Amino acid sequence: MIRKNPSGDLPVIHESAFVDPTAIICGKVFIGENVFIGPYAVIRADEVDDSGNMEPIIIGANSNIQDGVVIHSKSGARVLIGEHTSIAHRSIVHGPCVVGDNVFIGFNSVLFNCVVGKRCVVRHNSVVEGCELPDGFHIPSTTNIHADSDLSKIEQVGFREEDFSEDVAQTNINLVKGYKKLQNEF
């Protein structure tokens, strides 16, 4: 469902993107080329700050927002999802938040008030909040990061994790093409 927010903002979705009919896209949201938005995802840009202003939620080209993902923002803060980035099933991205290019966010992970650098991998069931992950970091499954000081225990991403992220992104680009073809059959 594509709908306006109370401020009257309507999502802008590139014609090559695929948004599953069960997803809800609301408000000041910009979805780039070849993006895949999976079933039951909710992307809502509807809150304003104390001045009545709102930053957008932007999802970069060739990224995928998988089943049940929630992207929202506190008090109109910006959320930026880079290009070729995968946000896996049931994750929550709550702004303010910036997620770089070629990033993988694993199942059930939570990002809040953080910056995730390019080529990072945040594995399943992890929490990243209140910090900035430098480019190329690997957060193991079930890790909780609540401050920049917690980063000293994190190792750099190896080629295996980067290859996995690229494979997930490419798989979902192919899904966009397949689902776009199917849209014409209904």
Straight-line distance between termini: 16 Å
Helices and strands, in order, run as EEEEEEEEEEEEEEEEEEEEEH
**Low-pLDDT regions:** none
- Name of the top-level CATH class: Mainly Beta
Helix content: 10-25%
Structural class designation: mainly beta
Number of helices: 1
Q: Identify the CATH architecture.
A: 3 Solenoid
CATH fold label: UDP N-Acetylglucosamine Acyltransferase, domain 1
Mean pLDDT: 90
Largest sheet: 13 strands, parallel
InterPro entries: CA_gamma_LbH, Gamma-CA, Hexapep, Hexapep_transf_CS, Trimer_LpxA-like_sf
Protein name: Carbonate dehydratase
Family: Belongs to the gamma-class carbonic anhydrase family.
Keywords: Acyltransferase, Repeat, Transferase
Can you describe this structure?
The protein is mainly beta and 186 residues long. Helices cover 13% and strands 34% of the residues. It is built from one helix and 21 strands. Strands 1, 2, 4, 5, 7, 8, 10, 11, 13, 15, 17, 18 and 20 form a 13-stranded parallel sheet that branches. Strands 3-6-9-12-14-16-19-21 form an eight-stranded mixed sheet.
